[in-house]
């Protein structure tokens, strides 16, 4: 039997999260004596999945699936799961993954554990740890159905190389016209910009930056680090920065390797959304700012002095290390 | 247009999270409950449809009697009536199944739910509800217009937004952007008085099984102390990030 993973791609290229899913699935497959099958929709090159333990890739090619549609995609994955007899289906935590997962769960009659952060603690009963209460706690969920659907939280497992011989097979799902009842009109996307969802590093600014005119240094710091930019809620509420940069409990979640917070006090609602980040650096001129309690590294100082100095030093560091 | 707004009753965002009964239950002691923030944005958008397009707005919660103050608050904000399905929600599928019955019996054109609730962060109820009822579904919704039977919906995607069109009935998973923070309403005295006269119907739960159960809870391990670096010694910070944390 096999474990099925849905590997998301963008413009025909696999997303990095696909390799994390593969790594995770491979470990679980070893534990349970399974193989790993990936389903990839309109993805050109899937050969690299073999580096992360995937045994078989079901490749779907269909123009009708060029733009993402949660219902059709869920339907395709469901058909693949049936064909493979998969009892465990794993998907990631991108916006699209989270959109289609509940639809898929109903189709598969599967119990669904979202935001899973570890391999199942046991498979009989099937118990898996996930985050709850906006990262303020973990919850071990027991899935009681025959088929299990796991939504793996980003950056919670990491990459693990595992050479295997990923056999490619064409997969021809039967598409149902009623599945296309939602018609895409337009997409408005900043190209070339690193998104918070994909970023390894996120540089975030708060009200301590005083005004939108001061974001130049935040953008520069981000660009030196190859990072995405983010902000606290009041900053987006006041229109200093676009809404899609708002992170926190009511904004976007951040699960990057490094989160740098500049002029952000560290309110509980802010921390709830960024706590899943591995390493947190805080730059704040108030040593009493609550963020210091949640941070790994801190600089007590004026952002308007610290950030420009840090940019210079990072540039020198990058020049030396490249 | 008949609108149903799903209201999840959750601990206030500043709540301290603790567990009881051997870490199997959330400790509600001293916790203040509120309308799930994502649902509050949705409810406010529903008020706009009510005031500008003459829609009727019903709010619904699947929960015990303890959630009624939260439903009353939604009535005080302006919903016309409320429904409480009398059951302790055991998992997302259970809630979605209960709501599916309400949606089918009530013949709603538009169901507004939240992208996720901030307690269990399941992010599954609206999608499952759509799968169970066959309605169209758009998640992470940040903009919604309805003309007759047609909806134009904007959803957030990674790195931007997408606009889609579809017919009613429609279910959305909403979030901030549906309305702005400054559009949110605090119930006033008149609203609170009027809410007392409005109907809050209690329905008996239908039969459904849960597919998952919460076995136990735990809190993250306490964090070590922050390492402070002097602003005059930023090389040390870079060194720590490079050699110790290995993130740059
Ligand atoms: C229901 C609800 C949901 C919420 N959801 C979110 C959410 O998702 N995300 C979110 O971010 N917030 C959220 N909030 C708001 C949150 O409570 C805080 O108000 C917010 O995070 C504060 O933003 P801030 O840190 O940028 O601003 P402030 O709290 O004003 O902090 C500014 C910080 O900048 C520092 N500073 C000032 N000048 C300088 C300088 N020159 N150099 C360095 N530092 C300086 C100050 O010491 C201070 O610590 C929510 C609130 C509620 C009620
Ligand atoms: N018990 C409930 N009663 C009514 N609506 C709910 C309930 N639980 C969740 N919802 C709705 O579903 C959304 C997503 O919740 P969840 O899937 O639990 O993250 C919430 O924002 C609510 O709109």
Care to describe what's here?
The complex is a heterodimer of chains A (322) and B (248). Chain A has 322 residues and is α/β, with parallel strands linked by helices. Chain A has two domains: 2-180, HUPs (Rossmann fold, 3-Layer(aba) Sandwich), CATH 3.40.50; 201-320, TPP-binding domain (Rossmann fold, 3-Layer(aba) Sandwich), CATH 3.40.50.1220. Chain A contains eight helices and 18 strands. Chain A has helices at 16-32, 70-84, 95-108, 216-225, 233-237, 268-274, 291-294, 303-320; strands spanning 2-7, 9-10, 13-14, 35-41, 56-60, 88-91, 111-116, 122-123, 126-132, 137-143, 148-152, 167-170, 183-189, 201-205, 228-231, 258-262, 279-284, 297-300. In chain A, the strands form four sheets. In chain A, strands 7-11-6-1-4-5-12 form a seven-stranded parallel β-sheet, sandwiched between helices. In chain B, helix 2 crosses helix 5 and helix 3 packs across helix 4 (125-133). The mean pLDDT of chain B is 96. Chains A and B meet through helix 3, strand 7, strand 9, strand 10 and strand 13 of A and helix 3, helix 4, strand 9, strand 10 and strand 11 of B. Strand 13 (183-189) of chain A pairs antiparallel with strand 11 of chain B. The site of flavin-adenine dinucleotide has 26 residues of chain A, from helix 5, helix 6, strand 17 and helix 8.
């Amino acid at each position: 039997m096999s474990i099925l993973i849905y590997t998301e791609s963008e413009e025909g290229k696999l997303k990095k999260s696909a390799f994390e899913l593969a790594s995770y699935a491979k470990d679980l497959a070893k534990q349970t004596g399974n193989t790993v099958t990936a389903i990839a929709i309109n993805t050109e090159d899937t050969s690299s999945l073999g580096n992360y333990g995937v045994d078989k890739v079901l490749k779907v090619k269909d123009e009708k699936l060029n733009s993402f549609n949660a219902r059709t995609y869920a339907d395709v994955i469901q058909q693949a799961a049936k064909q493979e007899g998969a009892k465990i289906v794993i998907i990631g935590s991108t916006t699209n993954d989270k959109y289609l997962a509940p639809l898929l769960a109903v189709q598969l009659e599967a119990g669904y554990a979202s935001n899973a952060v570890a391999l199942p603690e046991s498979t009989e009963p099937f118990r898996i740890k996930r985050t709850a209460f906006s990262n303020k706690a973990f919850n071990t969920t027991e899935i009681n159905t025959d088929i299990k659907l796991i939504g793996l939280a980003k950056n919670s497992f990491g990459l693990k190389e595992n050479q295997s011989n990923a056999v490619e097979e064409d997969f021809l799902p039967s598409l149902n016209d009623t599945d296309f009842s939602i018609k895409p009109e337009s997409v408005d996307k900043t190209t070339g910009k690193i998104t918070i969802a994909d970023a390894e590093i996120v540089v975030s600014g708060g009200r301590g930056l005083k005004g939108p005119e001061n974001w130049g240094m935040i953008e520069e710091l981000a660009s030196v680090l190859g990072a995405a930019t983010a902000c606290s809620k009041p900053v987006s509420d006041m229109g200093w920065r676009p809404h899609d940069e708002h992170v926190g409990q009511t904004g976007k979640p951040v699960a990057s390797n490094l989160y740098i917070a500049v002029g952000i006090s560290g309110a509980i609602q802010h921390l709830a959304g960024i706590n899943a980040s591995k390493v947190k650096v805080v730059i704040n001129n108030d040593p009493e700012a609550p963020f210091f309690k949640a941070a790994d590294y801190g600089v007590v100082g004026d952002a308007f002095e610290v950030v420009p100095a840090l940019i210079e030093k990072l540039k020198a560091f990058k020049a030396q290390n490249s | 247009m008949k609108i149903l707004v799903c209201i999840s009753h959750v601990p206030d965002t500043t709540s301290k999270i603790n567990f009881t009964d051997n870490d199997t239950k959330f400790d509600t002691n001293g916790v203040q409950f509120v309308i799930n923030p994502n649902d509050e944005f949705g409810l406010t958008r529903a008020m706009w449809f009510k005031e500008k397009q003459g829609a009727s707005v019903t709010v619904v919660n699947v929960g015990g009697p303890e959630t009624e103050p939260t439903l009353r608050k939604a009535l005080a904000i302006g919903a016309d009536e409320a429904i409480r399905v009398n059951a302790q929600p055991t998992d997302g599928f259970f809630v979605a199944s209960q709501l599916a019955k309400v949606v089918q019996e009530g013949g709603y054109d538009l169901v507004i739910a939240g992208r996720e609730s901030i307690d269990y962060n399941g992010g599954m109820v609206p999608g499952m509800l759509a799968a169970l009822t066959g309605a169209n579904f758009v998640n992470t919704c940040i903009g919604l217009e309805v003309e007759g039977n047609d909806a134009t919906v904007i959803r957030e995607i990674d790195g931007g937004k997408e606009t889609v069109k579809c017919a009613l009935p429609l279910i959305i998973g909403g979030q901030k952007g549906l309305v702005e923070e400054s559009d949110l309403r605090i119930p006033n005295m008149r609203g609170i008085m009027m809410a007392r006269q409005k109907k809050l119907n209690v329905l008996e739960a239908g039969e459904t099984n849960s597919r998952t159960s919460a076995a136990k809870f735990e809190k993250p391990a306490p964090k070590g102390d922050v390492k402070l670096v002097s602003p005059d010694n930023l090389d040390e910070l870079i060194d720590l990030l490079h050699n110790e944390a290995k993130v740059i």
